[in-house]
Design brief:
Layout lengths: L2 E10 L5 H6 L4 E4 L4 E14 L3 E6 L3 H10 L5 E5 L5 E5 L10 E12 L13 E5 L4 E5 L16 E6 L26 E3 L11 E7 L4 E5 L5 H10 L5 E6 L9 E4 L9 E7 L2 E7 L9 E5 L16 E3 L21 E7 L2
Antiparallel strand pairs: 1-3, 2-3, 3-7, 4-6, 5-6, 5-7, 8-9, 10-11, 10-20, 12-13, 12-20, 13-15, 14-16, 16-17, 17-18, 18-19
This protein binds 2-acetamido-2-deoxy-beta-D-glucopyranose.
Length: 345
């Protein structure tokens, strides 16, 4: 779309602040306390963003329309023009979150607040969402590129996932049922294992959940907890309750994003519960304070309904803030999780 030079709008009741603001990197500042508001707008000729209007006003100039947008804390873009040429439509949506609403319209110009999204930082089909108040952005990435901020996947490959809000597939009886390569990327879940040619002491695993927490583990044949997880994820061997329990060596992940686990991860199980072979990595083989909990909730050799309701399946979040009775400890369909692997450099 045609881009013209950006223009800026400054509203100041105390001129002394003018220089501070003009020198700032920030593209929009709404600071009524200091009496200064400021925005850089980018102009799109012959365009109108056809979305819900916060307000429609008549103003003489497009700069006046920018001023009105600044004064409305929800406004992120505006259309200016129309039949009489002076209609100012303030919008809460913008070209980044609602690209499908951008229409050709010779009687209008569209203005959006300048944003890091204007540089298209999101790769692999990711959608850029502008966070105007911090002059920053967030990429909404397709699941298989969900690894880093700009949807780069790097050298990580997904081998297991459960998309948030997927109905538990009732015919599945094993969260590690399938060989690597069995799933298609469009599948809503993939109960896959590590590739058979992966090598234990040089494989890393990355887990990302739907809360955005990212944990990284390194497999290690000398660590009993790590080795049990390897036996499950790679060799498809069951690990019954009691075999790997409160080991003196724990297998803690690096928290790349989010908080570290609140308890030592020194216990591992991969065993059947309520008809589904399920995985649990935690501090005592009983639900809560788990990092990986896939399938059905478990406690010791059974499960405890107050911690994890019977016949509720899914995945649990990587980080658990506390141990409370109720569903928050348990695997559940409202959480999403993807597991990736790579060979360590
Ligand atoms: C380990 O988990 C149990 C609940 O399963 C909890 O009561 C206990 O406090 C935890 N231990 C630590 C050190 O967090």
């Amino acid at each position: 779309m045609p881009l013209l030079k950006p223009f800026s709008v400054l509203l100041a009741s105390f001129l002394i602040f003018l220089f501070n603001v003009a020198l700032s990197e920030q593209q929009i500042v709404r600071d009524s306390a200091k009496g200064v508001s400021y925005a850089n707008f980018i102009r799109h000729k012959n365009r109108r963003l056809n979305t819900e209007q916060l307000e429609s006003l008549t103003v003489q100039q497009h700069a006046g329309c920018g001023g009105k947008c600044l004064l409305n804390s929800k406004c992120t873009s505006m259309n200016y023009g129309g039949a009489g040429g002076h209609e100012c439509q303030l919008l809460v949506a913008n070209k980044f979150d609602s690209p499908e609403a951008m229409t050709s319209d010779e009687s209008f110009e569209h203005f959006s607040v300048a944003s890091p999204c204007d540089k298209n930082p999101c790769l692999n089909g990711g959608k850029c969402l502008s966070i105007y108040e911090h002059n920053s952005y967030r990429c909404q990435c397709p699941w298989e590129f969900n690894v880093w901020k700009n949807c780069e996947r790097g050298d990580w490959t997904a081998f297991w996932w459960y998309n948030k809000d997927t109905t538990w597939p009732s015919h599945e009886t094993d969260v590690l049922a399938y060989n690597f390569g069995h799933c298609r990327s469009s599948d809503p879940y993939c109960f896959g294992r590590l590739p058979t040619d992966a090598i234990e002491d040089s494989t890393e695993m990355l887990a990302i959940d739907s809360e955005g927490t990212k944990y990284k583990w390194s497999f290690n044949s000398a660590n009993p907890v790590a080795h049990a997880a390897w036996r499950a994820f790679h060799d498809h061997e069951m690990v019954p309750y009691g075999q790997v329990l409160k080991e003196s060596a724990s297998w803690g992940p690096d928290a790349l994003v989010g908080k570290s686990p609140i308890a030592q991860q020194n216990s591992f199980m991969y065993r059947e519960q309520n008809g589904v072979k399920s995985v649990m990595l935690d501090n005592d083989s009983c639900d809560c304070k788990t990092t990986l909990s896939l399938g059905h909730g478990m406690c010791f050799a059974g499960h405890v309904s107050s911690l994890s309701p019977a016949n509720q399946y899914g995945v649990d979040t990587l980080y658990e803030p506390a141990c409370v009775s109720g569903v928050e400890n348990a695997p559940r369909p409202s959480v999403g999780l993807t597991l990736y692997f790579r060979t360590r450099e």
